[in-house]
Predict the structure of Class I SAM-dependent methyltransferase.
Amino acid sequence: MSSYFDRMANDWDKNRLKVERAKITAHKIKEIDFNSYNSCIDFGSGTGLLGVQLKDTFTKIHLADSSTEMLNVARRKLAESKIANVETHHVNRLSDLTSKHSAIVTLMALHHIDNVKDFFVEAYGLLEQKGTLIIADLYEEDGSFHKHDLSFKGHNGFDVQVLSNVAESAGFKVEKLEQYYEIWKENFDGKKVSYPLFMFVAKRFE
């Protein structure tokens, strides 16, 4: 998975739609009432398109990704902009991180994670009491979204009811679930269709 993103890293921020998607997602996240604003993990952060936009919302931002080249681009941007409260972490899974955090956000990353149940368990362990998990990702689709990437072995979006059940079994309380964005791409037939994204907000309660 990371080899694909390593190849795409230098041109990632040139994609106007990816920039727009991150901006709209950040705006939605800023509307959430968090229990604390100490620290936020952007998991699967890529070049930091989402996480960097939250730098004035949380005291500390942690950009976490498995792609070395994506993180290299992020570090260059942080250095050029002299942003001091954003750190980068090369990780393969959420449990590679430590301490407790106010929030975990992830944009278009969960469908790349093999074991979703483990992700929720690990997220629960990293969050403070009443910490918030925010997932922005694809609704279940026919597999055509990633037809351009032959190496893709992830999930073809999600049945959000199943996702809610997995979250609750890990100890979360689902607070909000809504469609908030759509991506237009060609399907298997070459026809441009909508791939809607959901925003899933859940909190850790002891």
User: Anything to note?
Assistant: The CA atoms of residues 44 and 65 lie 5 Å apart. Helices lie at 2-8, 16-30, 68-81, 116-126, 160-169.
